[in-house]
Amino acid sequence: MDIVRREFVYIWYYFSVQFHQIFFYWVLGMLIGSAVSVFFKDKIHSMMREMDTDGGSISGIIIASMLGVASPLCMYGTIPIAASFSKGGIRDEWLASFMMSSILLNPQLIIYSAALGPKVLAVRIITCFLCGITAGVLIKFFYREKSFFSFESFDEPGSRDNDPNLIKRFLKNLYRNFRATGLYFLFGILLSALFQRYVPEKAVTAMFGGNEAWGVLMASTVGVPLYVCGGGTIPILKTWLAEGMSLGSAAAFMITGPATKITNLGALKAVLGIRHFVIYWLYVIAFSLFAGVLINLF
């Protein structure tokens, strides 16, 4: 009984330390995410619709990737919006760039990731932004004469942020945010505490550390089944980085995780078809490996 009590005390200690380190970023992320969703989402999407379809394709890819990062929607919300963009004449390469960036990052997740430190935050923003741009460039050059997406069965959804009172609208969105992320946030901290207590630092360093491509590959692989919610993985990443995970491995995990999250894959399969879905999967793995190895080298 004394052993059980002692282990509980250790785990509670690790849990409480992580909680106090990350709680502020979680709350701030929800506040900013809800504010963007309620007050700026329509403006962001209007900017995408107003892009000049006769303008420069590469510049459009870059702008679309920026707007994808700024969009607060999850993938199930992004795809119907992208369908409306497609019907409005937006090019496939711009849609690919917007959707890829939107999958990987959003304003709320940026704030969450600040808990990992400025260097990791900068790496996450830059790699996700470049992943969106690269996806758009590849679609531009390899799918000039044919469409990459199939949006026929999607219509733009009605917004749930429609209360005439702005304060109530914001509070309702904040409550939905809390319900969507709260349990994952606490579960992520618990997993982190268990890792700290029972997984030796040498094991983390051996698996994810150093400058070896093997560590990046392992991080890419682990990111596939482990990633469920962005907020929930922040405590785990924080622990792994403290115990020897390389920056390149962290970058690979932060790309493959959200890109292969099961809910995102289900939504993407509906608009890509099996062949393009496989191409998407291979692209994500290849980009994460390349980015991770490059970051470790430099």
Low-confidence stretches: none
Overall residue-averaged pLDDT value: 84
Largest sheet: none
- Gross geometry: globular
Short note summarizing the structure:
With 298 residues, the chain is mainly α.
Q: What attributes does this structure have?
A:
298 residues, mainly alpha, 0% strand, 80% helix
What secondary-structure arrangement, pairings included, does this model have?
Layout: H1 2-49, H2 57-70, H3 75-87, H4 92-104, H5 107-113, H6 118-142, H7 166-198, H8 201-208, H9 213-226, H10 230-242, H11 247-259, H12 262-297
Describe this structure in words.
It is a single chain. By secondary structure, the chain is an all-alpha fold. The chain has one domain (2-146, 165-297). The chain contains 12 helices and no strands. It has helices spanning 2-49, 57-70, 75-87, 92-104, 107-113, 118-142, 166-198, 201-208, 213-226, 230-242, 247-259, 262-297.
